[in-house]
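Support reply, case 0932

Customer input (verbatim):
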Amino acid sequence: MTQASMALGLAGFSFMLTVIWGPPLLRVLRHFKVGKTIRVEGPERHFTKLGTPTMGGVLIVSPVVLITLLLNATSLIGVTFLGRSVMLPTGVLVAYAFLGAIDDWEGLPPLTSAFYPNGVPAYQRLLPERRVLLNAALRRGLGMRARTKFLFQVVLAVAAAIGLRYILEVPQLYLPGLKGEFELGIWYVPMAAFVIVLCSNAVNFTDGLDGLAGLISATAFATYGGIALFQGQTFLAPFCFTLVGAIFGFLWFNVHPAMLFMGDTGSLSLGATLGVVALMTSQWALLPLIAVIPLSEVASVVLQVTYFKLTGGRRLFKMSPLHHHFELSGWSETQIVQRFWLISLLFAMIGVALAVV
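Our regenerated output:
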């Protein structure tokens, strides 16, 4: 079996596991009322999503971890499908999923059954100031403190960067058009940690519309999986395509109108793992192309906040992250998702072309 066919086979197997596992997970989340909260200042159309089950990242992480562990266990009987090198991105996937799950759990308001889901119209009828009071009165509802979450992200990223540098000893950086490895020396660990944290938050900001973060993430992982195949990384490529299959399975339930949201459980873990995968291929200089949409979402937030402070309250965008700006400009949710995905596909193809130069 060639590595490409094995990678695609794992993607299909992961997809089937995820689709099978989806309905039971939905029933569990609905039973415990693990429902989505909505930003009061967000677009009005989002209030219809109030109470939709969240923490769907579990649906992605579980089959990937199961398949990875099972395939690594085959080495005990002398058959090798995946190497131990993929245990690092798997560990990052699990660690950030756990961090995101804590944030999602702390962000769950104790809404009464009246709001799940029949109470959504009642919530919409509230005046804006009443919505503010309601949200303020809810237990938790805001999630983990941003500084606390960021601190944990940095600690996990530094640990992963050290593992990449001193345990896996991956090449530090390849630049398009240049032969050989570009050495960063002592700067590799902080730069690698920065990439992981940046990607984690970038995908997190992208997760705001049905199917958007999933489609963009799947495209990026497929791209780096293809690059890994070109490089002969026979363990990393199947891992990437296993993730692609799981994300496609999640999208089965997340396409508009979504029955399930990934939450921080999915977005933080997918973003951090994408950063690790990019670092393992040493082609992380191509992230601005391959992850053009998530990085644009982050840039829009940074620019919005900076411009707001410098101008004393004026806004550069109608709302950030960037997809909300286009929502308030009159684009439908499906238009934004499809157009952003087309842009992502185009830039991913350019990224692959540069990687194999």
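We compared this against your earlier run and they match. Two observations from our side: The mean pLDDT is 86. The longest helix spans residues 3-31. Please reopen the case if you see a mismatch on your end.
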